[in-house]
Each structure stands twice: as structure tokens, then as C-alpha cells.
């Protein structure tokens, strides 16, 4: 193979430009030529010398020199072991230069292309694996460097915060995802000893600021990442607490609701007691008024007044009777009840209150409704709550319509209670059955009425919906099944 002068020049220039060290030695370790990293200046000093003497300051050949293996096998060789630190030489890779089968010279290099490529590949793969591990973690993972620039933002973090991963990596600063001073506080706590050790923060509850401005409560585990004892970044693993807190809140509300129903029960007892006490004097008033009218000869005018007293006393007695019925203290007792009668009873108790004065009441009750298995006290409470809401919504003026109907097809009784009030905005309707949801001013509404109603309807295996149009009014529709679906199989003794 002939090399032209021009090509020779180029090859030499290329070798010179090469940064890594190349030695060309004879099979007896004699340096024939060198190139790379400042060696050209020393070339005249080293050429002709033994490589182990000139390069490694040794009196005998290096034990782990790849040259031995090349001489033995005739093949390019990579030095296997690195040797002890004292023995660590720069000669990593060696290949023969030959004419025919004879090895004329050997080239020793201090770098190794195949190994570097392999290491890079290994590194790339383990990096990709770690990246994958973080990105697919179920917890949110965010890492940021010391300036606040976000380095890692995984899918879970994106889902919790509402930012896309791209947005976060390119546009966000770590301070953007904490409201107010929280980012600074997290850093302070991280550096303090008191929250799981310096450089660590364990199960710390803090808020994040979502993209849409929501504050998102999270539980954060964070750590400072050090390199050579220098702080280079922070990493946080966190979990969205919204669902957990919602559940906790719901539980607390249920407890309060329970308390409230206890209170209602004791109010019922009180009402029953008062009603009993009123019963006797009322009986007396009625009886003696009648006696006076029968036994004395009195003027017509006075008789008229007595008549009036009698009528009012009777009305009182009826009220007391209804109240007793209403507040009757029983355990939940499912018996067949006439829904029309229950509605009328509740209305009877309410309709003479001042708030009903300018309310027109329309009744459209289906005749001969079959009785519905129900707890009468609960049924009364249910109607009372819905009717009071309707009348309160109308603010004393409008019309209240009570309608009942039988649906043979579905084996149920349908009760509709409508008002001509202001209606409920569409986005509010889904919330009205929530405990404590009220739009009434403090002290006026508890927000418990409809949640109680909802519970009662469920207890009866029924269904309740609200239909409303703003400006026109609201209708509550209750469906109560005529037959109770019993749970459990036929052997179920209960
Ligand atoms: P409260 O009456 O104490 O506010 P409720 O649970 O009885 O609690 O009712 C919840 C909310 O539902 C009320 O605050 C009101 O906004 C709405 N609401 C209920 N019934 C009606 C109705 N007939 N018309 C308009 N809004 C109603
Ligand atoms: Mg109410």
C-alpha cells in the first residue's frame, strides 16, 4: 500500500491534532514515535528509550501492559484490569502494526474507543432507568437547582399541579408553585435539624399553588442534594391530600349531623311534654265554656264571644294533637301510612304561621292512594323541611303546590312540592343536599334540612330530585316505593 506525500501530510496533521496520547513502540518496548498532549515537544527526549522507563519511570516493563497480550495473540487488546493505583498507567489499548505475520511495531493508546462507547451506553441506560423510575412514580416528584430552576417534574406532579411537564421545565420557577412565602419556608425547614434532620424534611404538610390558582394541600418529603458537601439541588416527593382532607371533613360533618339529630330528638320530647301539659287545661276551657253556654241565660253578643272561645280552644286542641302525633317518640318504625294524610297534617301545623299568610296553597292529592311503608315521624320531618324551604324561598308571597300521584307501573307514590320562588341556579342544585350547604345568612339556615330529607328518602328506599328554573320556582319530586325491598335471602330470620 503506497501512501502519497499529500495523504501522509494529512495523516500526520490529523495525528498531531489528536488530543490523546499515542505511542508507537517496537516489540521490545523501544519508543519509535509519539503524538498527542504536549508529547511532541518531548519527542526527541523519549524516542529510542524504553516506554516503561520514559513514560512510567520503571526499570522493568509494566505488568499489566496490553502489549504482552498483543504479542501473544496478534490481536488488538484492551487492558483488562486497572492495576493498583501505583501501577495505573496510561496505556489502555494496544494494536499491532505488521508486515505479513510479523509484528513490526505496536501502538499504545491512553484511551479506548470501544470501552468508552460501552460505558457511555451503560451510563445512558442506567440514567434512562432512573429517569423512568422518577417520571413514572405515583407520587409527585419535583427537583430544582439552587436558583429555583425546575430540573425534574414528573407526570404525577403535572397531574396534581395542572401544569404540563413542558411548561414546568421551561417556564416555571420553584417559587411559582408555592403560594406566598411557602417556598422559602420549605427551604428553611429543610436546612433545620427539627424536621427529620438537616437536609431532610419528612411528611411535612404544605400547600402548592395549582396552575388555575387553587391551593392544593400536600404531604411533602424533601431532601437537599449535595455534591462534595455543596448544596446543588433539592428534590421533593409529595402526595395530594385533597381527597383525604375531604373525607376527614365529611366525617366531621356527619358527626355534627348526628349531634343535630340528637338535638332534634330531644326537641321532639320537649314538644311532646308541653303538648301533654296543654291538653288538660284546654279540655277544661272547652268544657267550662260549653257549661256556661248551656246553663246560663246569656245575651247573644256574649254567646257569640263564647262560641269564639270554644272554636279557638278546639283549634288549640287539634294543634296539640297534631304536635303530639308529629313529635311522637318512637324508634324508626316502618308501617303503612297514608302520604296524603301526612302531608295535610304537616301543612296543618304550619299554615297558620305568619310566614304563610300570603301564600296560596294548592292541593292536588290523588284519591285512594295505597299506603306507603314509612316511619311517620320521618315522613313528617321530610315534608316539614321541604315546605318550610319553599315558603322561605318565596319570602311570604307566592303559591305552594302539593301534588301526589300513584305510579302503578313503578309501584311507587310520587310526591311533588312546588313553589313559585326565585329558583335555584343550575350550578347550585347539585349541592343543596349536602350537609351544611346553605345560601341563607348566618343564623337563618343550618344547611341541614335537605341533607336530613335526603337521608330519610334513602331510608325509605326512595328517590328525591329537585327541578328548578331561576325566576320561576322549584319543584322537589319524591318517589317512595309501595313495597319494601327486604334485604337478605328467604332464610334470613330477621
Ligand atoms: P337551609 O334551609 O338551612 O339553608 P337546606 O338544606 O334546607 O338548608 O337547604 C339548602 C339550600 O337549598 C338553601 O339554603 C337554599 O339555597 C336551597 N333551597 C332549598 N329549597 C329551596 C327552594 N324551594 N327554593 C330555592 N332554594 C332552595
Ligand atoms: Mg331548610
Quick tags:
494 residues; alpha+beta; Beta-Lactamase; Helix Hairpins; 4 domains; five-stranded antiparallel sheet; 13 helices; 17 strands; binds adenosine-5'-diphosphate; binds magnesium ion
Q: Helices and strands: which structural class?
A: alpha+beta
* CATH homology-level superfamily of the largest domain: Histidine kinase-like ATPase, C-terminal domain
The CATH topology of the largest domain comes to Heat Shock Protein 90
Which range does the strand content fall in?
15-25%
Q: Tell me roughly what share of residues is in helical segments.
A: 40-55%
Strands, count:
17
Shape: rod-shaped
Q: Order of strands in the sheet with the most strands?
A: 2-1-5-4-3
Number of helices: 13
Q: What is the CATH class designation of the largest domain?
A: Alpha Beta
The first-to-last residue Cα distance is 105 Å
Low-confidence region ranges: 487-494
Domain tally: 4
Q: Which second-level CATH architecture of the largest domain applies? A: 2-Layer Sandwich
Report the order of strands and helices: HEEHHHEEEHEEHHHEEEHHEHEEHEEHEE
The overall average pLDDT, rounded, is 85
**Could you tell me which ligands this complex binds, including any ions or cofactors?**
adenosine-5'-diphosphate, magnesium ion
Query: What radius of gyration results from the CA coordinates?
Result: 46 Å
Quaternary state reads: single chain
Amino acid at each position: 500500500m503506497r501512501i502519497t506525500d499529500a495523504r501522509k501530510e494529512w495523516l500526520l496533521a490529523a495525528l498531531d491534532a489528536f488530543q490523546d496520547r499515542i505511542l508507537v513502540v517496537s516489540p521490545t518496548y523501544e519508543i519509535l514515535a509519539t503524538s498527542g498532549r504536549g508529547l511532541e515537544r518531548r519527542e526527541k527526549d523519549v524516542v529510542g528509550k524504553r516506554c516503561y522507563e520514559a513514560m512510567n519511570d520503571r526499570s522493568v516493563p509494566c505488568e499489566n501492559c496490553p502489549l504482552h497480550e498483543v504479542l501473544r495473540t496478534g490481536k488488538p487488546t484492551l487492558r483488562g484490569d486497572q492495576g493498583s493505583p501505583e501501577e495505573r498507567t496510561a496505556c489502555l489499548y494496544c494494536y499491532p502494526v505488521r508486515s505479513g505475520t510479523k509484528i513490526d511495531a505496536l501502538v499504545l493508546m491512553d484511551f479506548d474507543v470501544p470501552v468508552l462507547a460501552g460505558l457511555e451506553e451503560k451510563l445512558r441506560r442506567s440514567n434512562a432507568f432512573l429517569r423512568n423510575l422518577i417520571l413514572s412514580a405515583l407520587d409527585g416528584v419535583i427537583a430544582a437547582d439552587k436558583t429555583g430552576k425546575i430540573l425534574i417534574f414528573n407526570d404525577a406532579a403535572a397531574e396534581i399541579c395542572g401544569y404540563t411537564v413542558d411548561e414546568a421545565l421551561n417556564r416555571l420557577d420553584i417559587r411559582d408553585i408555592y403560594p406566598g412565602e411557602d417556598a422559602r419556608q420549605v427551604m428553611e425547614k429543610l436546612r433545620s435539624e427539627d424536621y427529620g434532620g438537616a437536609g431532610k424534611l419528612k411528611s411535612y404538610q404544605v400547600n402548592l399553588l395549582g396552575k388555575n390558582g387553587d391551593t392544593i394541600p400536600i404531604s411533602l418529603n424533601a431532601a437537599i442534594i449535595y455534591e462534595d458537601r455543596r448544596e446543588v439541588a433539592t428534590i421533593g416527593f409529595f402526595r395530594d391530600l385533597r381527597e383525604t382532607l375531604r373525607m376527614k371533613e365529611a366525617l366531621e360533618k356527619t358527626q355534627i349531623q348526628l349531634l343535630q339529630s340528637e338535638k332534634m330528638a330531644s326537641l321532639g320530647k320537649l314538644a311532646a311534654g308541653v303538648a301533654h301539659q296543654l291538653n288538660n287545661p284546654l279540655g277544661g276551657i272547652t268544657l267550662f265554656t260549653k257549661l256556661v253556654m248551656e246553663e246560663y241565660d246569656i245575651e247573644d253578643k256574649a254567646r257569640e264571644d263564647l262560641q269564639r272561645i270554644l272554636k279557638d280552644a278546639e283549634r288549640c286542641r287539634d294543634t296539640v294533637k297534631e304536635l303530639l302525633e308529629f313529635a311522637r317518640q318512637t324508634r324508626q318504625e316502618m308501617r303503612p301510612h297514608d302520604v296524603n294524610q301526612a302531608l295535610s297534617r304537616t301543612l296543618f301545623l304550619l299554615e297558620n304561621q305568619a310566614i304563610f299568610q300570603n301564600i296560596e296553597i294548592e292541593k292536588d292529592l290523588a284519591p285512594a292512594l295505597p299506603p306507603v311503608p314509612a316511619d311517620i315521624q320521618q315522613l313528617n320531618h321530610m315534608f316539614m323541611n321541604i315546605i318550610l324551604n319553599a315558603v322561605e324561598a318565596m319570602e311570604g308571597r307566592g303559591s305552594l303546590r302539593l301534588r301526589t300521584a300513584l305510579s302503578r307501573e313503578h309501584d311507587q307514590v310520587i310526591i311533588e312540592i312546588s313553589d313559585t320562588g326565585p329558583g335555584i341556579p343550575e350550578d347550585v342544585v347539585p349541592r343543596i343536599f349536602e350537609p351544611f350547604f346553605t345560601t341563607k345568612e348566618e343564623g337563618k339556615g343550618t344547611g341541614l334540612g335537605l341533607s336530613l330529607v335526603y337521608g330519610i328518602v334513602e331510608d325509605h328506599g326512595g328517590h328525591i330530585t329537585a327541578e328548578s328554573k331561576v325566576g320561576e320556582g322549584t319543584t322537589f319530586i319524591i318517589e317512595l316505593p309501595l313495597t319494601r325491598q327486604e334485604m337478605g335471602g328467604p332464610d334470613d330470620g330477621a
